[in-house]
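Quick one, probably user error.
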């Protein structure tokens, strides 16, 4: 099975490395060509100058971009994916995308007899480096089975969630939980710090109690208390994800005031902290409001 991988960002790059390491013939394309050239030098993959050229011989094309609209924008034109992809091949979109755009992309591809699944991932850059991501898949089960050997190279757990867009929806809601946990944990620990409780002591209690989460158990001890704030997952991308979750709820007329509020707060944080900040840096906004550092 020949693979093309487009989008060698923070998470795409380690995912593509596993595909190359498992011996699949791999061609890569990236907007900033030097990144794809360097990847090709390091892994033995082939570097293509355009999406069409990357896709030309591929049985499976994998995309991993910030948003679904970036994938949609790569379909058309002489250099676009549709100019290169053959009938009876598959596009696997690992972007944490939005269901409506994924369904529109799937319909465009179907008219060229190309299959589509959305397959966003969770587990972060560390999980990607270990090949231990979780992939949540929307689309036909038979299509997933065809491409499963490729997903197996970087995902430890693969879950079929439903039709096209179902993977995106699960990913958006999962990340809405993450956003809420970051804000609520920051508010709680800022309050306790002001009340004179050492945040380490507070987390020791909370992480043995019912208020704990991955955020309190891992993110705060490793990234906030240490003031390390490593940049692994951009705050702008989490703002995008929680915005998708809020939009899905609105479209389905599900009252979701907590999701909406967290989406608005992350929009403010993105405006204040910028496009490069890590998602956990939203804590700094809460600290500034409280006038205290969680350390
Ligand atoms: P990055 O911002 O690190 O990388 C984005 C990639 O998309 C780069 O290859 C970039 O190219 C390319 N790109 C950006 N804009 C465009 C454009 N307009 N046209 C073409 N290419 C473009 O993102 P991540 O790798 O972190 O995230 C990718 C997806 O995975 C997102 O949907 C994110 O939400 C999701 N995700 C990320 C996780 C993480 O921990 N980082 C965890 C789970 C999911 P260039 O090199 O030229 O900038």
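Nope, works fine. Designed sequence:
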């Amino acid at each position: 099975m020949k693979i093309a991988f487009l989008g060698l960002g923070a998470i795409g790059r380690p995912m593509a490395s596993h595909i190359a390491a498992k011996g699949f013939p791999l061609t890569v394309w990236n907007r900033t060509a030097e990144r794809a050239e360097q990847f090709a030098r390091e892994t033995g993959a082939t570097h293509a100058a355009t999406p069409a050229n990357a896709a030309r011989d591929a049985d499976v094309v994998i995309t991993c971009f910030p948003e679904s609209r970036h994938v949609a924008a790569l379909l058309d034109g002489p250099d676009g994916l549709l100019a290169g992809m053959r009938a009876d091949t598959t596009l696997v979109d690992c972007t944490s995308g939005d269901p409506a755009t994924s369904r529109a992309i799937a319909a465009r591809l179907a008219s060229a007899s190309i299959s589509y699944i959305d397959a966003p991932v969770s587990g972060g850059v560390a999980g990607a480096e270990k090949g231990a991501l979780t992939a949540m898949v929307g689309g036909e089960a038979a299509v997933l089975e065809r491409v499963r050997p490729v997903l197996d190279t970087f995902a430890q757990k693969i879950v079929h969630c439903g039709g096209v867009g179902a993977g995106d929806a699960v990913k958006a809601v999962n990340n809405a939980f993450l956003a809420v946990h970051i804000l609520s944990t920051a508010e709680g620990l800022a309050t306790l710090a002001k009340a004179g409780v050492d945040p380490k002591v507070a987390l020791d209690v909370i992480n043995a109690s019912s208020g704990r989460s991955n955020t309190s158990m891992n993110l705060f001890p490793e990234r906030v208390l240490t003031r390390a704030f490593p940049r692994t997952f951009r705050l702008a991308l989490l703002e995008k994800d929680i915005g998708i979750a809020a939009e899905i709820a609105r479209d389905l007329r599900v009252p979701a005031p907590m999701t909406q509020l967290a989406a608005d707060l992350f929009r403010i944080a993105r405006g204040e902290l910028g496009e490069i900040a890590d998602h956990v840096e939203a804590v700094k906004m809460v600290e500034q409001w409280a006038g205290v550092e969680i350390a």
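The chain has two domains: 3-163, 169-290.
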